[in-house]
Amino acid sequence: MDTVVQIIVSGLTLGAMYAASAIGLSLVWGAMGVLNMAHGALLTIGGYASYSAVLQLGLPWYLGLPAAMIVSFVVGLAIYHIIFRFMYRHPAFETNVIIATVGLAIFLEQVTLLIYGAYPFPQPFSIEEGFYVSSVFVRFQNVLILILAVVTMLLVAALLSRTRMGRAIRATALNREAAQLMGVNVGRVFAQVMGIAGVVAAVSGVMLSSITTLAPTMGYDPMLKAFIICVIAGLGNVPGALVAAFVLGLFEAVVQFAVGVRFGFPALLALVIVALIWRPYGVFGRRQVRRV
Amino acid sequence: MIIRRRGTRREEGARKRFLESRRNFMKGAGLAGFGAAAMTSGLLADINDGARAEGEPIPVGGCVPLTGWAAADGLSFKSGLELACEEINLMGGILGRPLAPVFEDSKEQGADNIIPAMQRLIDRHEVHAIINGYNTGAVTAEYDTIADAGVPYLHHNTDIVHHETVGSDPELYFSNFMADPAEYWYGEGFMKFISDLNDTGKWEAPNRKVAIVTGSQNYSVVIANAMRDSAEKYGWEISLYETVVVPISEWGPTLQKIRNDPPAAIAITHWVPQDLAQFMMQFVPNPTPSLVYMQYGPLLAAFREIGKEATNGVLFATVVGALQDEIGQDYFQRFNSKFGESASPLTGSQPYDSCHYWAIAAAMAGGTGAPGEFEQNEKVCDRIRRNIYRGVQGATAFVLPYQAARTYPTETRDPSLGMPHQFLQVHNHLEQGKLIAPEPYETAAFQIPPWISG
């Protein structure tokens, strides 16, 4: 019984971490056709912003998250104004932006390293208490991550489906030229998406660093996992990414226990390959259609 | 081709004084001949015989990770070498020539970072020695660069591959020294340590099982394999051998396997402090009555800062690090007063001790050698091989032919002939770990971990 509970708890924890990482990446991918390779760096900035707000500015721990959201929102907008604004009209935008964001990720990582050093800091936005399910200890923090991942996804979905801004984003995602002809300011839509992606990344960064740690390279692994989740869910499918994250998290936990921890990630990749052979546009994806 | 410069008149004077001084020292101390022990750096001042460090500076290289994942340690290595050079210069440098440390960044420590950095130290800075902490990625690929230049290279890579490389051609790699024991010794040393705890009644093992959890890096795997291979010799059996992919923060499946078959001891050879802290935070709420040993990570304060109370009772070890005895405490004070309380003297001691060791050897050999000056560098390296140095990390003595530091007590039972394999335990997460073994260096007693004692 304990074993089953432990695997479910571990699987949900992994799934929540993957979901938290994947939502922002999926949003940008779906809305702009941009594989934002600096997404991991945005997570990192969010995590460190919370740390600085609490431990350097002396704010209460619970204000770490809003502080991180503000900082990452500004950084997201800055990325648009410094890089994307000059690139998105070019026909090769979707390819060029991958290279540009790889460079940006390296730059942001080095800036983080210069400011904070390589020393791993604990995230102050963290709840250490927990409760037992059978004999398995579950931290409130893990539950909070799970809830926040779901809530963030619901908020992003509501924003996209129920607001004027969301309609403009969806219109741009479906057909940029047609949206432009209908009076949508595509540049502003891109800026809005990057701002929202920054906010979502901040939530992810604070949550992830609360059960891992703060380090300049902390965004690499979540970025990789988020990429896999987005591919298997279908490019830009935010609700699909959430479901895929939890399914893959549970699958990985089962493999880790039954076969061996080192086989968890390879098995996950094997599952992705099988899924893509079966559904080339992702399990929840549709041919030639971008959804947000 | 590098042509040796002629010494200045001041250097020649210092060299003459050195020769007279050395004759007097050897005669007086009765230490001439093989195995002569260079006990302290005071020896260097004696050899310099009052010479002031005013001659042409001797460039000393440090190839250290100033950026990248190991930058925190890299800065400590840089500080350690700077402090050593400063102290040596106060003692007259090497025969009146001051040391001038220069650094190149080994970044992420891949061979593609390390070899060009070493080459720059040799070609651009013409260093007379390269003295490092650790660089993990080259796996002796840089040894050929050193072999071409011939300058002494003292590092702390803690890598068993060094034995094979240098042992395969000691003549070619005559100037490559690993100034700490290989990581292999962590494995057997751990088995001996828990056996000693059990045999002396300090701890009563509930069974003879050990669970080993390793990361996927070569360093972790070598140690885990050494534990597995030496377990039988000490009467232990391996109940679990699990390899985890790093980074890892969710330890649930691994912990469940451990709980399903509780061992007497859990040994984790993965070394990243934040991952290890997460293990303890998930282990302590539902523990097994097992000792927990972790590799390297608990040496860093980040482990205790992240894991807090859950880290109390954790065992860890290092085959190289500053001791907590009088010599070590004095060094800690000097290091922290120069670099601040947040500086890390524990790892800075690696290049610190090796720089002193090399400086004494060079002074005894009649001076340093630039790249390409093989004859002089041979003399310096010969002195390094013959000397035994008692520094802040204990005794450094090289095992031939592979020129790696001997470990105590697993490889020798004489503490004056080997670098202590230090076992430490977190007694209070707000303080550094306490040194609990080996004798005679221990400063505190082993404590039964709180999750066992209740």
Number of strands of chain A: 2
State the total count of DSSP E strands of chain B: 19
Strand arrangement, largest sheet of chain B? 8-7-9-10-11-18-19
The CATH superfamily title of the largest domain in chain B: Response regulator
- The name of the CATH topology of chain A is ABC transporter involved in vitamin B12 uptake, BtuC
For the record, what CATH class of chain A applies? Mainly Alpha
First-last Cα distance of chain B = 69 Å
**Averaged pLDDT of chain A:** 89
Instruction: Tell me the series of helices and strands of chain A, N- to C-terminal.
Output: HHHHEEHHHHHHH
Number of domains of chain A: 1
Could you tell me the mean pLDDT of chain B? 89
**Category by helix and strand content of chain A:** mainly alpha
CATH architecture of chain A: Orthogonal Bundle
At the first level of CATH, the class of the largest domain in chain B is Alpha Beta
Largest interface pair:
A-B, 38 and 36 residues
Helix percent of chain B reads: 40-55%
Distance between the termini of chain A: 40 Å
- Report the β-strand fraction of chain B as a percent range: 15-25%
The profile of the biggest β sheet of chain A is:
2 strands, antiparallel
What is the multimeric organization of the chains shown? Answer: heterodimer
Care to describe what's here?
The complex is a heterodimer of chains A (292) and B (454). Chain A has a single domain, classed as Orthogonal Bundle (ABC transporter involved in vitamin B12 uptake, BtuC). Chain A is built from 11 helices and 2 strands. The termini of chain A are far apart. Chain A is mostly helical. Helices cover 71% and strands 3% of the residues of chain A. With 454 residues, chain B is α/β, with parallel strands linked by helices. Chain B folds into 2 domains: 241 residues, Response regulator (Rossmann fold, 3-Layer(aba) Sandwich), CATH 3.40.50.2300; 167 residues, Rossmann fold. Chain B contains 15 helices and 19 strands. In chain B, the strands form 5 sheets. In chain B, strands 8-7-9-10-11-18-19 form a 7-stranded mixed β-sheet, sandwiched between helices. In chain B, helix 5 links the parallel strand 4 and strand 5. In chain B, helix 2 runs parallel beside helix 13, helix 3 crosses helix 13 and helix 13 crosses helix 14. Chain B is elongated. At the A-B interface, helix 1, strand 2 and helix 10 of A face helix 3, helix 9, helix 10 and helix 11 of B.
